[in-house]
Amino acid sequence: MSPFRRFLSTRHPAWRAVGWLLVLAIAGSTGLFMARGPRALKPGAAAYPGEGTQGRFGTFVEHLGSGTFALSYDTIEGTREEVRLGKVAGRLEEPGTVWGMVSPSATRQAGAWTLMGPLQVEAKDLEGVLTGRGFMTDPRPALGWNQGVWTGLGPLVWDDLEGSGQGRWFLPAGWTRSLDGRFKVARGPVRWEAAHPGALQTLTASTMEATLGFQEGTLGGVDARLDGGAVQAHRVDITLPTVTFLAPVTFQRGDGWTGSAEGGVAPRPPKGQPFDQMEFRQFQATRPIEGGTEAVNAQGARWTSAGLRLEGDVRLEQPADKATAILRAPRVLQRTGPGPDLPADLREGETWAEPQAVLTWGPRTLSSPRMIGRHRTRTWRVQAPVLGRGELGTFSAGAGEGSTRRWVFKGPIQARFFDGALVRGDQLVWEDGAMTLTGRPVTWTRLRQRLTGMKVQRMGDVVRFPEGISGALAGQGGDINLQADKADARGSLLNLDGRVTCTGEGWRLQADRISVTLGPGNTVKQISANGSVVLKGRMGEGRGEALDLDPVNQAAKWHGGVRAVTEVRP
Questions:
Q1: Cα 106 from Cα 126, distance rounded (Å)
Q2: DSSP H or E run through 493
Q3: What is the tens place of the pLDDT at every residue in 36-95?
Q4: DSSP label at 28?
Q5: Dihedral angle of Cα 287, 353, 274, 255, to the nearest 10 degrees
């Protein structure tokens, strides 16, 4: 066989070498193109060989840093200088986020894209989970994209679906999104509405700069609507853990409180839960109430959907008759609605002051481990043990309730008056400066005095025993025991009235009325009896209308009609 015919045979070794060379060439070129990656389609002469070139179905791809912007279209037309796309679906890939956009049309001019409205936008994480979506409804130019910078040519409504503080944002036309991913609004208003209304319901700002999902950023000129009120702040800083309100901060509450604070913080809630509280520093507020203005100051305050929690040197002032009632406590709780942040047994309309609250009005003071106030009636319930102080003295008592006009306390009661008297009883009524103790019996002790009665009243320097008195007074020769239906005392004079009996060492005196005058050392100096007087014993015996008895000198002097007198000499 000739050499030429052998070369044409498929078994010739040369063809095997040629085949391997082709395989190596294909593999090498494939690897080279894979290493270079995809390239953007340049809308120029190569894409449009002539003026007004048209086409269908394709994709524009542009690269910017680590991101890729791709626009898929159904129709395309235009020139080298301007491209118009129809039925556009955009995809922007960024580190950590994939954006999707759907627009009826898009235009590329001078290297910048304009997407027409109505426009839909959505964001997903790298696992395909939808984190947010938005829309621009006007059928007009909606979104500009130029070298990675977005410009909102119309208002955007954005639903934040992931993370804490989910809600809907309203951005006005003119908003931008820079290369670092931050949305900016230079002229508002910008508005946010909570997806799950709680303590924080809406935010309205004049300026904004924030990241995707509004996890971090700054708002300027903020007006926040809360459950039960509103807060205004010069600036609000948004971080992952908190939303911080910076001074000056002012607020208004639905229950009438208006005031200011040095700053406020709203902790971000767990995913899917509402903002349930706001915390303020150096909280000051006032509100009008019947009879004047109520004021409160606290180092810290927590505003929740349930009410107010005031902490740190709390001072609450209320008008009270002719004085001002001042409540001081480390912590004060006020419930205005339902919610778990406050104790379940704190009822709506009530105020708790604890621990060791102090209530002062004029010269009077009460302290208790817990005081429970009812705002509508301006009355209080206080837990035992209660300590009180007034014009007359001090006292300790059990639980009580009342107002600055009148208080009622359970026993055991122990009152110590400034004149040295110590009184014990089972109940105390404190009203208009007067103190009334009842018991079985009430005991009154003072230097050389031991008295008891079912009721003891003290008003100023007057002491009354309106339901009976018994006891002993000190005399020169020993104690003088006494008993009467009622009595009153002022200074050194004790007046006994109704079936009065006085008994001394070896003598006994009975009368309708007896006055006892005390001398130095709180001892009995003189006894004057009137009405049906009967004297028996060593000081004489007799009956008459009036008698002066001198227990110091052991002398008796009768006045008026005397029916029988027997003088007894020692």
A1: 26
A2: strand 493-504
A3: 554 444 433 334 434 555 567 788 888 776 678 899 999 999 887 889 999 999 999 888
A4: H
A5: -20
Tell me, rounded to whole angstroms, the distance of Cα 552 from its chain centroid: 69
How far apart CA 457 and CA 429 sit, in angstroms, is 9
Average pLDDT over residues 334-353: 90
If one counts every other C-beta atom within 10 angstroms of the C-beta of residue 176, the result is 16
Domain locations along the chain: 468-570
Query: Can you tell me the distance from the alpha carbon of 485 to that of 370, in angstroms, rounded to the nearest whole number?
Result: 40
Contact between residue 452 and residue 471 where contact means Cβ atoms under 8 Å apart: yes
C-alpha to C-alpha distances, 157 to 73, 137, 190, 218, nearest whole angstrom: 25, 9, 10, 19
Amino acid at 494: L
Contacts with 361 (C-beta within 8 Å, 6 or more apart), sequence order: 320, 321, 323, 324, 325, 326, 404
Q: Is the pLDDT of residue 251 over 80?
A: yes
pLDDT, position 246: 94
Which residue in this structure is represented by tokens 């926040």?
A: 224
**20 pLDDT tier (thresholds 50, 70, 90):** confident
C-alpha to C-alpha distance for 185 and 177, rounded to whole angstroms:
9
pLDDT tier at 12, thresholds 50, 70, 90: low
Cα–Cα distance between 558 and 3 in angstroms, integer?
178
User: For the whole model, what pTM was predicted?
Assistant: 0.74
